[in-house]
Amino acid sequence: YHGYDYATVQIGEQCWFAENLKTRNYLNGDEIFTITENTAWSDATSGASCIWQNDSASYFQAYGRFYNYPAVVDERGLCPIGWKVPAGDDFDVVSSEFGGNSNSGFALKAAPPIWDGSNESGFEAVKTGYRNHVGTFTYQHAVFWTTGCYNPYNGVNRFLTTQDAALSAVAEEFTNGFSVRCLKDTE
Fold this sequence. Notes:
3-stranded mixed sheet; 3-stranded antiparallel sheet; 5 helices
């Protein structure tokens, strides 16, 4: 997709990307703006993407890109034809295969030395961190956007953190930059 081959994993009835999305274009080919400067990131109201610490040589292959919420819900689409950005319920389904949201985190996280999970699922979540709403980078989590919207200012994500078995959900500002995992669209 847009020059990248993605590993996939079948988990129950769902087929997921087994790595984070890397595209810098929407499905139709339009470019998603890449923003490196913190203030420009926090001020963005349209779709934007970035790479951890703005260092593509060191982090792009393993971490993919971070996207703000406007990019995630843009009608031009982020994922390839036949795939979608998952809803929160989609994460609940994959989580249920490994004991539910309070217990599935270790099965979804990459195994040592990459991270502290078992990767029993094959989902291979990597501790990529994220870009917060003021544009700075924070490292302790893997955070994935969903298509869920909490209110006019906050989208819903799912996250994993070090030394925790949970796959948690929280509403965050649209200007945060999180990873995206595409899910095969069965509808």
